[in-house]
Amino acid sequence: MTNIFLSVLAGSISVGLITVMLIALTPFINKRYAAKWKYWIWLFLAVRLLLPFSGTDIRTALQTLQQAKKQTTVQTQQSGTQVLPHEPARLQRVMVELPAQMTVPITVPSKGNSIQTTLLTATVMLWAAGALCFIGFRLISYMRYKRQLFRTGAVIKDHRILCQLMQLKQELAIKRSVVPIAYADAASPMMLGFFCAVIVLPDEEYSAEELYFILKHELVHLKLGDVCLKLLLTTANAVHWFNPLIWLMRKEATVDMELSCDERVTQGADYAQRKAYTETLLSTIHKQC
Predict the structure, then answer these.
(1) Residues 149 and 181: beta-carbon distance below 8 Å
(2) What Cα–Cα distance (Å) separates residue 53 from each residue in 63, 78, 247?
(3) Residue 199: which H helix or E strand, with range?
(4) CA-CA distance, 3 to 108, in Å (whole number)?
(5) Is this structure's pTM higher than 0.85?
(6) DSSP code string of 131-191
(7) How far is it, in rounded angstroms, from Cα 40 to Cα 85?
(8) How far apart (Å, rounded) are the C-alpha atoms in residues 81 and 83?
(9) What's the pLDDT tens digit per position in 69-86?
């Protein structure tokens, strides 16, 4: 567990530095590349954050295991002969340099006996508890919101909305069933559900143009799998909850996810359509305020 934490800490530091570099280069990147490319970089970094072991570590461990097996076989065959095992060749990598105070045993008195631990062990326990609390809080909040949504929300049966939804599903080649729900407490339109897709619409009046762009925006999120990718980012944030740069990375990735979706919605559109889409976004923000 300690080794996993040290690998997580090293990965958190390295990805945090890359995050700072990417944010600093954002004006340059945005001028030359589409938002989806930076979004995919964030996703790659999120996957890296969830893999505490690199490919080199795995290869080294397998080589060590094979050499140890060979040495055991030689020792068994050479009965009566003491064979000193050779130190296997390993790739020396400095992951994290810990101060000596973190490995000094700390005595914790209790009733009748004492428990010895180290500052490093206590840090690992704190990290694991924080990650579990983060995931638990997010999961409970999501389940409560979804339960409240189905309890007080209403399935939309407006023929105009259902026809527009069906037309956009055919346009985007989406075969999954999508349930539109009107929810008065929704802050903005959103897509929910990993297995059963749900489009949540605030209980507002929408023009035909606004309805087209709002539904298309949410369906593009569904087609791109952004709900699952957002879960990936949240999980990475949970594992690295102690690093504020990872929180910043998740925030920037969410912004680039929305920009990437906007690019996909307006792909091939003329100036008038892009202008209408922008006005729809501004209108939605105004309604939120």
Answers:
(1) yes
(2) 15, 36, 22
(3) strand 197-202
(4) 23
(5) no
(6) HHHHHHHHHHHHHHHHHHHHHH-EE---HHHHHHHHHHHHHTT--S-EEEEEETT-SS-EE
(7) 46
(8) 6
(9) 666 555 555 554 444 444
